[in-house]
Amino acid sequence: MKWDEFFVTGDPMIYGADVSIVLTMVGILFYLTRYKKWKWLWTEWLTTVDHKKLGIMYIVSAVLMLFRGGVDALLMRTQLAVPEAKFLDSQHYNEIFTTHGTIMIIFMAMPFLIGIINVVVPLQIGARDVAYPYLNAVSFWTFFIGAMLFNISFVIGGSPSAGWTSYMPLASNELSPGPGQNYYLWGLQIAGIGTLLTGINFLVTILKMRAPGMTLFRMPMFTWSSLVTMVIIIFAFPILTVALALMSFDRLFGSHFFTLQGEGMDMLWANLFWLWGHPEVYIVILPAFGIFSEIISTFSKKTLFGYKAMIWSMLLIAGYSFLVWVHHFFTMGSGAAVNSVFSITTMAIGIPTGVKIFNWLFTMYRGKIQFTTPMLWSLGFIVNFVVGGVTGVMLAMAAADYQYHNTYFLVSHFHYVLIAGTVFGCFAGLIYWYPKMFGYKLNERIGKWVFWLFTIGFNVCFMPQYFLGLDGMPRRVYTYSEESGWGPLNMVSTLGGFMMGIAFLVLVYNMYYSFRFAKRETTGDAWGGRTLEWSTPSAMPPFYNFAKIPEVTGLDHFWRQKQAGKVEKLTAKDIKKIHMPSNSGVPFIMGSFFFVLGFGFVFDWIWMAFLGGIGVIGTLIYRSFEYDDGYYVSVEEVLETEKISK
Amino acid sequence: MANKTAANGHGGFPWKHLIGFLLSIVLTLVALWVALETDLSLTWILIIIFGFAFLQAALQLLMFMHLTENSTSTKLTGRVQVGNILFAAFVAIVIVVGSVWVMTAGHAKHDKHDEPKTENHGEHGGEEKSEEHGSH
Ligand code: HEM
Ligand SMILES: [Cu+2]
């Protein structure tokens, strides 16, 4: 391979990206060295096992990925703004919609939610960390490395271009030669390890580490939604792992699982992909439901309406989510029997989702509603998500889906659920728990601007796409003719897209503005919350979270304590020494070896993959001989941190 | 915190894990040998390797997955354990039975690209009929 095949060449935009990447790198290195931050970076962040810090790193990565995916989106929208535009050629457009979809789902939506789960769930259940803090760091680093591996594809070797669904035979060596598709396979495979480990970690954490008195049916709704999400992750992700491995065998070692030759079954890939893919959409929506539940309850000053109904409907969804996958390929032609069955299961899954909408509405009913920004996002969610849900049910009818499938109607549907559901949820959760993470709120006035800009931009962008779809505009086309008449609505849609882009910039500005000027919180209870995370005396909980593990007597324990005027005040005799896990650099090093392994396989340099593999196994062996039982935080240190006098 | 006591609780060399690991490798290699090196018919190969697969799944559940262990410390753990296994069985059945059904029903069953073109498919029959129809 020559260097001009290794680096992507020829496109001025790519050269621009090259330059900006190099400049950013140099800038970061300079900053770290100039201000002697290397040690800080290593001890505070790269080796941390603290769930709150890992959570923040997840969220920061996710916001960066939202930026990258958003730039992709705006490039596509620019190309589609007018008929027969020459801004992107077809190959480039294909690469961009592939990386956009993959990044938004795998490297933006999931880590954003997992980040919030990391920060919040241990606090909500009154625990000092997760069950396996070290494993948690491994999760983060495998995710991060997977994401980075996938992201460098556009400057090194070329991006995948077979869609985030990577259907075979399009994704085969014959039709997608070169390293692009391998980036997809190995980026997702490595990040998938992290997701699976997160699933196990938080399942155990929630089941085993709850504060005394917190029975399952006293857990906050966000914790419940995380628990159900973890169950779905544990059972769905292995399907993706296997499917990716089989396709990797096809591409690297000449096997014939999904190829056209050698009796391979190309459609089996689609089948396996969606067996994972449909549960995946619930993985990215359930935690968002949990976030909205907390926020709506807090700002209506009422207990969540129908708490148990909510839980049962989520459990039902967890089971159902494995029974509907064929609705993604009704047009494959499995016949009337298969299509009818999956039509019905798909419509049925709308029912538990509908139940939840009513739960939220009844929670607000007669509540004292405060229109804070997190609450605005939650209200916006209810309205817009319903549009996505209703069109989803339209798509569920197999016969009708033959018309809608692969048109912009579908594109609009999944953006109405993913943006109005997942993205609104991430924003709402970020703003709501921001004081827990950083000790101050984001500015509310700017926050409302962000909300309105984004929500209006969102509708201007995607509402026209329903009509474009009904008018026959197919998805994944890089241009269209003047005569099609699709020009005007596309232009409107593009304007909406840029409005969302501006809203994102204002959000980032708000982070900067609030960092500089926001009033610092003096208590742990920034919003008048109901659940345990708000009960810590300081705005940002210390690394051990709770000086004394709380004892819980019912749902919304902290709220009821406040109402009764009986919030516990810690005294010196409550304090005992606290056992905490030690930091470790091994997860980060293991992640780096995974990068070597993945990069080797991407370019089919087996020696390099082999070296990376040895490194990964080496770190595993090292870990199994490491006898580190953590350490104790002394009573004095706790007293000092909690500002309690003896 | 919690894992400290748990880790010390087992103690000794993990024989169970080692044996399970070695047996798993042996079963895999034998399955590979049956598939690649013997002259058995396809049906028999499938039956045998499926047998090995189930054996290995059971082995792993026993040796690694603490299937028989019942930490009776709380009622909850027992119920969670049973629920987990039932849900796992449900998902496994859905994946296998569902995939076979979806991939063999309707047009999907023609998803074999290597069949010699001369063979008379049902579809071809249909085309011939319509040709006849046209000639009337
Ligand atoms: C600024 C906001 C966004 C805009 C303007 C936008 C626009 C687009 C466009 C133009 C496409 C390609 C249509 C085609 O197939 O030709 C697309 C596809 C897609 N988008 Fe977005 N999008 C946005 C945000 C998101 C978010 C937040 C997510 C996920 C959480 C997402 C998930 C997807 C997925 C999964 C696809 C399908 C990719 C594929 O078909 O390969 N998008 N989007
Ligand atoms: Cu689906």
From TrEMBL, chain A:
Cofactor note: Binds a copper B center. Heme A3.
Enzyme class: oxidoreductase
InterPro entries associated with the record: Cyt_c_oxase-like_su1_dom, Cyt_c_oxase-like_su1_sf, Cyt_C_Oxase_1, Cyt_c_Oxase_su1_BS, QoxB
Annotated catalysed reactions: 2 a quinol + O2 = 2 a quinone + 2 H2O
GO CC list: plasma membrane; respiratory chain complex
Pathway(s) where this gene product acts: Energy metabolism; oxidative phosphorylation
Domain of life according to the entry: Bacteria
Keyword terms, alphabetized: Cell membrane, Copper, Electron transport, Heme, Hydrogen ion transport, Ion transport, Iron, Membrane, Metal-binding, Oxidoreductase, Respiratory chain, Transmembrane, Transmembrane helix, Transport
Chief location: membrane
Enzyme Commission number(s) of this protein: 1.10.3.-
Cofactor (UniProt): Cu cation; ferriheme a
Pfam families: COX1
Membrane topology type: Multi-pass membrane protein
The Cytochrome oxidase subunit I profile domain, residue ranges: 36-553
MF terms in GO: copper ion binding; cytochrome-c oxidase activity; heme binding; oxidoreductase activity, acting on diphenols and related substances as donors, oxygen as acceptor
Transmembrane segments: 12-33, 54-76, 96-121, 133-156, 183-207, 227-249, 281-299, 311-330, 336-355, 376-399, 414-434, 446-468, 488-512, 578-599, 605-622
Location relative to the cell: Cell membrane
BP GO terms, sorted: electron transport coupled proton transport; oxidative phosphorylation; respiratory electron transport chain
Family: Belongs to the heme-copper respiratory oxidase family.
Role noted for this protein: Catalyzes quinol oxidation with the concomitant reduction of oxygen to water.
Record-given protein name: Quinol oxidase subunit 1
Origin species: Fictibacillus arsenicus
UniProtKB/TrEMBL annotation, chain B:
Catalytic activity: 2 a quinol + O2 = 2 a quinone + 2 H2O
Segments crossing the lipid bilayer: 18-36, 43-65, 85-103
SUPFAM superfamilies, per the entry: MFS general substrate transporter (SSF103473)
Predominant cellular place of this UniProt entry's protein: membrane
Biased composition (Basic and acidic residues): 111-136
GO molecular function (one): oxidoreductase activity, acting on diphenols and related substances as donors, oxygen as acceptor
Keywords, alphabetical: Cell membrane, Membrane, Oxidoreductase, Transmembrane, Transmembrane helix
One GO cellular component, as annotated: cytochrome o ubiquinol oxidase complex
Pfam families: COX4_pro
Membrane topology (UniProt): Multi-pass membrane protein
Record-listed E.C. numbers: 1.10.3.-
Region described as Disordered: spans on this chain: 110-136
Gene Ontology biological process terms in this record: aerobic electron transport chain; ATP synthesis coupled electron transport; electron transport coupled proton transport
Organism domain of life: Bacteria
Localization annotation: Cell membrane
Record has Ubl conjugation as a keyword: no
Family in the record: Belongs to the cytochrome c oxidase bacterial subunit 4 family.
Annotated function: Catalyzes quinol oxidation with the concomitant reduction of oxygen to water.
Protein's name in the database: Quinol oxidase subunit 4
